Amino acid sequence: MTRETIIEKLSHFLSNEFPNQGGVLEENTNLLSDWFLDSLGTLEIAMFLEEEFDIDVQRADINGDNFHSMGTLTDFILSRI
Between the CA atoms of 81, 7, 28 and 15, what dihedral angle is there, to the nearest 10 degrees? Predict the structure, then answer.
């Protein structure tokens, strides 16, 4: 799976599940402060990653380094597949 495909899938999921009417979702958009994801949203993303990319997301993986942006999520996904 390519980086572009992963970004596209993440963008589609985030835009549909967590619409942000004032912001533009880009690869480096800060999901926690600029897209306003909360802890429940972070857990929903973790479940999506497990289902969509068939990876195992551990509690320790759910952190600001991995969940900062679509770019860091993509890096995390690529490290697991």
Answer: -130
